[in-house]
Specification:
Layout: H1 3-11, E1 16-24, E2 32-37, E3 43-44, E4 46-49, H2 56-68, E5 71-81, E6 87-89, E7 95-109, E8 119-125, H3 136-144
Parallel strand pairs: 1-7
Antiparallel strand pairs: 1-4, 2-3, 2-8, 5-7, 6-7
Length: 150
């Protein structure tokens, strides 16, 4: 069980400040890999919360493998997002204020494969037009990081 889940035993659904990483994986056509989320049934980016002692880049590497079965030679740092806009309430009621490092995975190896219980599917999407059933928080992250303009 992860660090955040352990905290939830103590604080319940009350808002937590959660530091984590978001990993953007692009294919050769420039399309972004998204996962269909089990909690909200919409499409979201790969990523998650830090574990104690873990760096943001180590979290990006771990989450990329856990959620997509992929590895990357390196990670390009894009930006850090934080503040009241980064509030998110999960469908089951947990509330967080995210402090999120955005990375772009470089020299990705492997075939996208679901490796945990957080995703139902993985698919590449063009960012040239709106993505059907895109998680609203994911849209905010992609917009704030400068990846979508529509």
């Amino acid at each position: 069980m992860g660090y955040i889940m352990e905290l939830r035993k103590v604080v319940g659904t009350k808002p937590l400040i959660m530091a984590g990483s978001c990993v953007l994986v692009f294919n050769s056509a420039g399309h972004l890999l998204l996962q269909r989320r089990t909690d909200s049934l919409d499409w979201g980016t790969i990523g998650g919360a830090l574990e104690p002692g873990e760096s943001l880049e180590e979290a990006a590497e771990r989450e990329l493998y856990e959620e997509a079965g992929l590895s990357a030679k390196s990670f390009k740092f894009i930006t850090v997002l934080s503040g009241k806009e980064m509030y998110y309430k999960y469908p089951h009621g947990d509330e967080v204020y995210n402090v999120m490092a955005i990375y772009e995975a470089k020299d990705v190896k492997g075939q996208p494969t679901i490796n945990d219980d957080e995703g139902l599917g993985l698919l590449y999407f063009s960012l040239a037009e709106p993505i059907p059933n895109l998680n609203p928080f994911t849209e905010l992250v992609l917009r704030k990081a400068g990846y979508i303009l529509w």
